[in-house]
Amino acid sequence: MRFLSPVRLPVLLACAVSFFSLTTESSALWPFSGKKDKVVPANSERESQELAAAALLAQARQAENAGKVSKAQTLYQTIVKRYSFTKSAAEASFQNAVIVRHNGKMDAAFDALQAFIQSYRDSPHFSEAIEKQFEIAEEAKGGRKQRGILLISMKMNSSDVIKFYEKIIKNAPFGKYAPLAQFSIAEIQQDLKEKDKAIAAYQKVVENYPNTSQAAEAQFRIGSISNIAAQRSEDASNLLAARDALRTYIATNPTGDRKQETEMILHQVNTAEANQSLTVAKFYQRVGKTKAAAIYLNEALKFGSPEVSAEARTMLAQLAATDPDGVADAKKGPGQDYTALTAENLKTRDDYVGPLAPELARLSQKPKMRTGDDGFVPIPLTEPTLPLRPGATTPGAGSLLPPVPETEKPALLPVPPAPNAPMVPPSPGGSNVPVPPVPPVPSTTKPAS
Prior knowledge:
mainly alpha, flat, Serine Threonine Protein Phosphatase 5, Tetratricopeptide repeat
């Protein structure tokens, strides 16, 4: 028995690895590889494939009606594999996905529907396939029991469920299930206590599907999540985000179902912001900075919380008694004086400059539509006759003007006399009477002697 030398053994192993890598990379060139690229058949071959696929589809339906589901599924898969470019292949692919949906796992059923959607988007079952995908995603999200003989709880990972919804949105971004899928993604993120991701997901619902009922609910959820985050932390940005989202909801849904709840949460947000401003104002009052304390007291009054407004006004009165100049300086800033009532007399203010000038008042008014006859004359539909060149009877070649009638010919203009020419009196009989010739002027030069 001969053994390979240690020197030749690594060489042979390297050749074997190269051979197997070559067969893997170029499997389409090898007849025994079992993998062939799909090629669109010619018209003559397409007709024969349609007949063969239709015959197999009829057998598969008969087997399924007879209760032989396994045999029917095998025939469906055979049609898709052999005759993928036929009309029967689209029907077979969908029916195979339906069988997997009833008997298989949720992820396998979703993948079978996804294979159908990617290959046969023009099929009449496209919308139905999207609907079934959404049903599977909802079942996976809620951890419902899988339909079938064995009712087994099929709770899936949240990241896998989110991928389901993302594929649904990608398959039909403007379909009726796209906003529902995006809203479900936001709910999953909210259940996972991932505030930033949940708010971003809800914001996508508002931006991408603004005219849906999910958009209004998403806007409310953004404000509610931000309000909860503000109660758990002292970050003022959460209060600002909550107030903006809630005000946007009220402005866009004045008669929405969440209006009363939104106003209650907005009152909580305003109270929280007013309390924060009041706390800061007390700090500046203790350290003796009257102007800064007055600024934050005015902010506390701005939010309109009745619980805080009384205390803020009392503190402002105390500051004005001890340091009136500091309180007056705080009121000089833009938007800092919130102590005055809305119905105050504007003429008593220092910055009152009087009413608008008549011109400015007129420019600020909206234009009014005409309601009666104000002498407006419409543009005439018949255009006047355009003049021609003097002496022209017919337009030149290529002209768009019509020929001028004899009665509308323009009069000929008189030709001015040449320089040093004798003046000729006009003919008394008009232009048709001949003019007698003018006698020659005798020469004044003397003849040569």
